[in-house]
Structure formats: C-alpha cells, structure tokens
Amino acid sequence: MKLLDSLPAFPPHVFVAEIDGAKAQTLRGFYPRIAKTLIFPDYFGKNLDALLDCLSSLEVVGQQEVVLLIRNAQLFLSKEKEEKKTSVLHVFRDAEKPENRYDGVTFRVVGIRGKK
Asked: Which domain holds residue 65?
C-alpha cells in the first residue's frame, strides 16, 4: 500500500473505492466494508484467500482501473495483531500484480494518513 499525506487527483475513468481505516481497525470491521465498497459477491468468505480471489476479479465495477483508497491509513487494522495486518497488506500487493489478475483491471491500493 502506497502511503500518502494528501489525496491525489484521480482521472475520471478510475473507479475509486474508499474505506475509512478508523472504521476498519479489525478484520471484522474491514471485511464487510471492502465487500460492499468493491461489490464482492454474496458468497465472499471473509478470509484472506477469498479476499485475494475477489480483489483479483473486479470486472463487476465496470472500470479498467480500480484504486482502493484507505483514509486514516494509520488506523487501518490497528487493533489486529501485526502478522494479520501484514497478511492483508501482502494480499493487497499480490492483487496489484498483473500476473495475478483474472480481469484485466489495473488495481492499486493507496493509503492516506489522517490528521494527527
């Protein structure tokens, strides 16, 4: 996840899906938010394997470029053990790789630091 201090300008053709890290401090809070934001199928299993599968197949959003924007990124999964957060970040990195895409979509994750 690329971490920035301010929101970059995204071209109009980019689908930007936002999650507030303050509301996703646990996996329990994160999974339903990402599922709704990125229009995951109802059978999304709320585990890391299912997360990678869904992130690697985002044609449902109808755009060729998708950005997952995490606001207050410093709070994202902050109440989880470090290894769980690291595992989610690893899934994000894997989903960004073109060789792991099933859909031809360019996917990336951007984190925006919140106010201190």
From this structure: 2-112
